Amino acid sequence: MTILFTLPKPRRRSPAAKPRPRTRPRSAAGRRPPRPGKRRPGKNFFHTPAGRRTLLALILVVLVAAMAGVSWWRYNGKNKEPSQPDEVLGVPVHTDYLPEGIEGRPGIQRQVKWVVIHETGNPAAGSNAAAHNTYIHKKAQTDSLSWHYTVDESEIYHHLPDNEVAWHAGDKLTKNGGNLNGIGIEICINEDGNYDQAVDNAAKLTAYLLHYYKLGTDHIKQHGDFISKNCPEIMRNAGAFPAFVQKVQGYLDQM
Ligand SMILES: [Zn+2]
Fold this sequence. Notes:
Elements: H1 49-75, E1 87-88, E2 91-95, E3 114-119, H2 129-139, E4 149-151, E5 156-158, H3 178-181, E6 182-187, H4 195-212, E7 220-222, H5 233-237, H6 241-253
Parallel strand pairs: 2-5, 3-6, 3-7, 4-6
Antiparallel strand pairs: 1-2, 4-5
């Protein structure tokens, strides 16, 4: 931020000007008439050099306070209300937040910097998004385990507000980490589901979130970027992460 102040040049008396007489004539009543041009106390203070300095100092104080306020606001992630979509590009989103005050919902407000892609690692039949919603509502009561969204081939469950920390990345509260600053998305891999369609729906959700939080595709992360873990496993084993990012970019271009 650059702010230019133009201060008026101080007036100088021309050297040729007549010196002011030391004494001025008294009036008939014996009082001196007011000196012409002399400032009366309390008037036009900001036109004096001291006044201008005070004004400048006040402006600087206000600016510094405003900048500090904006930093605090951004740090606390309160520059944007968390998104709570009903649907994303035609895929229904069910909001069923974990209750406040349990292990899996520490209630720590943060700034969203990443969308973190996971796979559930659970191939059992029936392990779809609804089943994982039921699972996490039980598990998060007592365990430090949670994430924000689960996606299958037909729907999405939203388990936590985006602006709150969840325990999905295994990196505690590392600065700029997956837990502290990432929205965790779990993609279902159940054998009776359609994995490719689930990945496609996850790409739609990822694009929606990046668009909403004004982030680019370089803010898409894998769980394995934060700790040594092969997650999302199927995507990584197939070398398909770049294709996923491209798919997200394709949906972003439509927004
Ligand atoms: Zn994971």
